[in-house]
Design brief:
A five-stranded mixed sheet has the order 1-2-3-5-4, with helices on one face. The chain folds into two domains: 68 residues; 155 residues, Histidine kinase-like ATPase, C-terminal domain (Heat Shock Protein 90). The longest helix is centred in the N-terminal third of the chain and has 74 residues. By secondary structure, the chain is an alpha+beta fold. It catalyses: ATP + protein L-histidine = ADP + protein N-phospho-L-histidine.
Length: 287
Amino acid sequence: MENKKKYIIISTMLFQTLLIIIYNISILGSSTLVNLKKSIPFFNIFIGVTTILILISFKEINDYEKKEAELRLMKSNMKNVEELITLLRTQRHEYLSHIQAIGAMLYLEEYKELNKYLRGISTEYRFTNEIVRLGHPALTALINTKRELAKEQGIAFYIKCKHKINLENINSWDLCSLFSNLIENAIEAALASEGKKWIKIMIDKKYDKYIFKIENTGKIKDEIKDKIFEAGFTTQTSVGRGYGLYIVKKIVSKYEGTINFKNTDKGTVVFTISLPSEVNKYDKKVS
């Protein structure tokens, strides 16, 4: 649908250009300008109307691309929650299986086999007590799932929550979208960095504000520092990229918060987000 709109816009612009050329040729080749002068108002109206339609179409396409980016993020967040639920269910099933096996070996007094079995599951099994609980169910699911994804890519992931999150007046979708974008951005930057790759998330509360810090290996080049929050700006070649940090900035502004970043002397970049613990309830969409 959007590709058709783009073709229509291009065709309209070409038609405008062709019409202007024909009109100019008519003026140059005409012996009298009386008839041409009469058609000038209609010509100007036509050009004006088509130009307005083109501008409206450009805006609609831009809005569509933003909504597509938000939809992809929503699907990604839903997938993260599903993966965490699956992980918890799988571990629950494995817990029961391990308990039954351990009970059987104890009953049969197979202590050597039991010792070997316990050593095996202690090194290979991921326990659910590794899950860091943040006080916000949706954000807990998101960040813990992102941590597992980062670990699978060889990135160490640390979470330090000094204060449980209680942001009832901020939509869960907005909060998850904010962190999903920041963490995905951090993962990309960490993968591109040299040496040990890691990400650290710190959550704290000072007075009436929650402070979130996301630090990762890598840095932001000086020449793009002023552009990273612009819609459509990206250093990647993939189509549809460049809206992550733009959406982050919009969400932070929507809830009257602040966001800033800086490169550190140890070869990392830190994003710091401040959100008020009590804000007005906003129903408007991030755009």
